[in-house]
Amino acid sequence: MASNYHFSAATEDIDRALVHLWLSNESYWARGRPREVQDRAFGGSRNFGVYESASGRQVAYARVVTDGATFAWLCDVFVSAEDRGEGIGSVLLQGILDEFEPMNLKRILLATEDAHTLYEKFGFEPLDVPSQWMARTTKPESA
């Protein structure tokens, strides 16, 4: 269970090749993302991982884009397919929220198609007034 895993905010612990493999091959939101794009995203974010305590094997990843004062965007949250159902997502989210708690950010946003129940456990909820929010999206050649 989750007690067999530990959270880390140490960027140097992250297996960047593994994270790219997960996101570009297994995620619904970053499928096909080139490694150079992932590396740029990694470099412009705070990066987090969860690791199996006994082996040190990475089992989860997430990154946060933030100004460190008022706003953050939680994204690229991924738990290894073979390790899902062990509470690892909760370990990852609790660790991230603990890291950001001292910043007293006004807002942390995320988008999800299928993990609403997990995020709700940590206080995330639908936007109060979604009509106030807008997005500009493009169709880049690469995710």
Plain-language structure description:
The protein is α+β, with helices and mostly antiparallel strands and 143 residues long. The protein is built from 4 helices and 5 strands. A 5-stranded mixed sheet has the order 1-2-3-4-5. The chain is globular and about 45 Å long. The model has no long low-confidence stretch (mean pLDDT 94).
Sequence-ordered SSE layout with sheet pairings:
Blueprint: E1 5-8, H1 16-26, H2 35-43, E2 46-52, E3 58-66, E4 71-79, H3 88-100, E5 107-109, H4 116-120
Parallel strand pairs: 4-5
Antiparallel strand pairs: 1-2, 2-3, 3-4
Shape: globular
Summed up, the helix count is 4
Percent strand: 15-25%
Structural class: alpha+beta
Q: Helicity, in percent? A: 25-40%
Output mean pLDDT: 94
Our measurement of the CA-to-CA distance between the termini, rounded to an integer number of angstroms, reads 33 Å
Brief account:
By secondary structure, the protein is α+β, with helices and mostly antiparallel strands. The protein contains 4 helices and 5 strands; from the N terminus they run βααβββαβα.
Keywords:
single chain; 143 residues; alpha+beta; five-stranded mixed sheet; 4 helices; 5 strands
